[in-house]
Amino acid sequence: MKQILMGNEAIALGLIHSGVDMLSGYPGTPSSEILGNFQKFRDKFKLEAYAQWATNEKVGFEVAYAGAISGKRTCATMKQVGLNVASDPLMSASYIGLKGAMLLISCDDPGFYSSQTEQDSRSFAKFARIPVLDPSTPQEAYDMVKLGIEFSHQFESIVMLRPVMRVSHAREICEVDDSLYVKANQGNFERNIPRWGAVPPAGRFRQGLEQIDRLEAIKLWNWEHLIEPKTHLLKGSRVLCLTSGTGDGYVKEAVSELGIDADILKLDMPYPLPKENLEALFVKYDKVIVFEESFPCIEEQLSSPKLYGKLTKHVHLIDEFSKDKVLSAFAKAGVIEPNHAYQSEKYNKELPKRPPNMCPGCPHRDVHYAITKTFKKKKSIYTSDIGCYTLGLNQAAIDTILCMGASISMASGFSISDPDKTVVATIGDSTFMHSGVAPLINAVYQNHKFVLIILDNSTTAMTGRQTTPERTNPNQIDIKRIIEGCGVACHEYVYEQDLNKTVDFMKSLQEAYKTATAPVVAVVREFCVLDKENAVGRLGNVVVEVDEDKCVACDSCITNYKCPPMHYNDAGKMEIDPFLCAGCGSCLDVICPTDAFVKK
Amino acid sequence: MKYQIVIAGIGGQGAVFLVKVLSIASALANQKCLGTENHGMSQRGGSVSCYVKIGDFYAPAIDEGQADLLIALEGNEALRNIQYLSKDRGVIVMNAPKNFPKVDFETHSIDAFKKAKAKEFPIDALNVYMLGVTLALDTHFPFTCKEIEEAITAMNAKVAEKNIAVLHQGMNDAKAVK
Q1: Would you state the pLDDT for residue A355?
Q2: CA nearest A139 in B: which residue?
Q3: Positive or negative, the Cα torsion across B57, B62, B64, B67?
Q4: A–B: how many Cβ contacts below 8 A?
Q5: Which residues 146-175 of B are in CB contact (within 8 Å) with A?
């Protein structure tokens, strides 16, 4: 049956068609829609399956892994940065293996579209010694989910699927199975202490040796089932392109559109590679070029003087692939003359800059504004974290961003290294639950003095409003009680769209800080403007305009408050775009020194 | 057939909706289709660009100098993405005021913001309105009005009637300014 599917939908459907009935993960672009779509299909087909967000990727992985060692077919989803968090259990799970099946889906983000780093999860698979499948389109992602689950079951190994953003967020007409035979599979944990109880060293040593044997068997399988059948289609050119994932699409298109004489061999499982078999193919070629995104995962497993790639500096080392980069690699390797078929002139005059920004009406903007208004920039350090509020960078209200949870631990560090400044940390509710609790315990334990503000909009807003622990179980899990459980008072503020009140709350924290001997912790109860359930009745309906006689174009509003509807008009005065304004009316309050914002 | 479309706009204007409509239309017209959209950091007010490649393609992204059509839901976003247009075939359909900078491509422009401010159509249907303008003015556009109507209905039958009315309004307005 043909269906139009986005990559992440295709993956979710593939999981259902593979009999996976236990899914756990943490949202992160570009992976987030996999779990949501799985839930959608589950409900549509009335299947019994567990699919829930975990507090973080490590937890999500461990939940799914326990399911797999009980014999169920499971899956954990995350983005590449999340895999760093889940790497701890992955390394051990790779030794121990499993009984049922488990697919680890880690979505990569070449080109840094929504990530702090450009990592290659395939390198992590190599590090952990588990096989990895690298799809290039939604159709392949669907097919590879099914292959990966079967393969995981057969080899008792976790299998990684590594889609990139251009697969997860691509849309394609896919051929998928017609009907469903899926029924919930029953887990049954069989006690086997030497296997599942990971205590070093004796048992681990044996499992380490088994892991190496397993890898050899997988290499052979990779050759016999995935690579060797394709070698019969090679035409015998002088140049061989080894491709993987999305790299393949760019090479295929460039080679066919420009009539370049080259053979293309796509490696569906870029790790573990049957080195000897592959290198034996090189005999017939003058040059072998490796096109892969993002790190030299394939290239590092092979060795030949004929090999060209990232390690030899013939292929780009950072950023997303493009056909222009394919041509550049061909030219550098001396296969074609320099060719600029995929370059074109940009518009060279100035255009309005549109950096990512918080939504109009978002409470985070007010909180950041109130922080900088109260805790002056010269005397403060603002640490922050991963989420929508990271965009407070636009308001110059954030000094550091490292990784999930680091705002609190770094606030501890700054309070020791630069004690004359007031450290103000901001973190969202989902990120706090993900990895902020442990650093808060540490800060109380060590009496670190700083201000921590938890921005609680009760959703994982940035990745598409996935549920958070306190949203699902509000009577059991509560940020205020977690803070109090750490032995410090919780200052609570229920956000209102009166900016003066938010500033006043911040001043009360400043007062508390003066006499504090431990972290001053606050939770601001907010809402996400896109969250239909929670935002209802809390967003204003105020139409604001600018009194042009009063506006002196001082930049104060767009520098310190920076709401998307604000822009200068042809007369050089501030203007509010009525199509973008959410009607919150916050700008009427303290942000304009000449009171130029007025109610219409 | 090979036809490549870049859809540019700012967050909240519904560029992703157009990718879905065009991919459904491709399926209805029995064509292969590969598209891609940017999620995540593109909050409201940020630049958004999406690609739709109809025909025999393997890579979802469109390269510079390759696109047949650029649909811009906002004029400056057309300029920001102009390098994706093919020098020989490239056509722009954009929402821009009359005094907008001239560029070296076949350009069809309509001031949709002005019409929305005058309440001639609801601003949240800007995407469908511009699709109507495209249907009326791009002679190489690979879909018929009927195919687009069917795709809009397949997307969401509940609001299809309203959307199709805006589609036709876009077509009529475009013919009037032509």
Answers
A1: 81
A2: B34
A3: positive
A4: 139
A5: none
Q: Are residue A52 and residue A117 in the same domain, yes or no? A: yes
Residue A354 lies in a domain: no
Q: Which domain holds residue A471?
A: 363-535
CB neighbourhood size of A210 (10 A): 14
Confirm or deny that A174 is annotated as ligand binding: no
Q: A57 and A112 share a domain?
A: yes
β-bridge partners, A164? A108
Dist CA A218 CA A213 (whole Å): 9
**Minimal Cα–Cα distance from A157 to chain B, Å?**
31
Q: What's the mean pLDDT in A441-463?
A: 96
A551 annotated ligand binder = yes
Residues A71 and A189 in one domain: yes
Q: CB–CB of A4 and B24 under 8 A?
A: yes
Query: How far apart are alpha carbons A472 and A479 in whole angstroms?
Result: 13
- pLDDT bin (cut points 50, 70, 90) of residue A541 is confident
Judge whether B7 and A315 are in contact, CB under 8 Å.
Answer: no
Q: pLDDT tens digits for A326-382?
A: 999 999 999 999 999 999 999 999 998 888 889 999 999 999 999 999 999 999 999
Mean pLDDT of A176-180: 86
Residue B91's domain spans which residues?
3-177
First to last CA, chain A: 55
pLDDT at residue number A338: 97
Nearest to A172 among B33, B84, B87 (CB): B33
CB B13 within 8 A of CB B47: no
Tell me the pLDDT band of A184, cut-offs 50, 70 and 90.
Answer: confident
The answer to whether A563 is a known ligand-binding residue is yes
Return the residue of B nearest to A357 by Cα.
B43
What CATH number is given to the structural domain containing A562? 3.30.70.20
- Last residue of a domain, which of A509, A535, A561? A535
A522 shares a domain with A484: yes
Q: What is the pLDDT of residues A88-128, one digit of tens each?
A: 999 999 999 999 999 999 999 999 888 889 999 999 999 99
Residue A52 within any structural domain of the chain: yes
Q: Is residue A223 part of a domain?
A: no
Last residue of a domain, one of A143, A169, A197: A197
Could you report the predicted ipTM of this complex, rounded to two decimals?
A: 0.92
Residue of A nearest to B61 (CA): A166
How far does A387 lie from chain B, in Å, by closest CA? Answer: 10
pLDDT score, position B39: 59
The whole-angstrom separation of Cα A217 and Cα A211 is: 10
Where residue B20 sits, what CATH number does that domain have? Answer: 3.40.920.10
B23 to chain A: which residues are within 8 Å by CB? Answer: 4, 171-173
Which residues in chain A have their CB less than 8 angstroms from residue B83's CB?
A: 344-347
User: Is A179 found in the same domain as A30?
Assistant: yes
* Same domain assignment for residues A380 and A462: yes
Residue A176 in any domain: the answer is yes
For an interface test with B, give the residue of A9, A166, A172, A176 to mutate (most B CBs within 10 A).
Answer: A172
* Domain total of chain A: 4
**Average pLDDT for residues A54-79, to the nearest whole number?**
96
User: Are A579 and B57 inside 8 Å of each other by CB?
Assistant: no
- Pick from B130, B53, B109, B45: nearest CA to B84: B53
Domain count, chain B: 1
Determine the Cα–Cα distance for residues A429 and A523; give it in Å rounded to an integer.
Answer: 9
Q: State which residue of chain A sits closest to B154, comparing Cα positions.
A: A4
DSSP labels, A180-234: ----PPPP-PPP-HHHHS--SSHHHHHHHHHHHHHHHHHHHHIIIIIIHHHHTT-
Q: Are residues A525 and A548 in the same domain?
A: no
Say what the pLDDT of residue B43 is: 63
Q: Give percent of chain A above pLDDT 70.
A: 100
Residues A434 and A523 in one domain: yes
**Residue A481 belongs to domain with CATH number:** 3.40.50.970
Helix (H) or strand (E) segment spanning residue B63: none
Residues of chain A above pLDDT 90, percent: 87
pLDDT digits (tens, 9 = 90+) for B75-133: 999 999 999 999 999 999 999 999 999 999 999 999 999 999 999 999 999 999 999 99
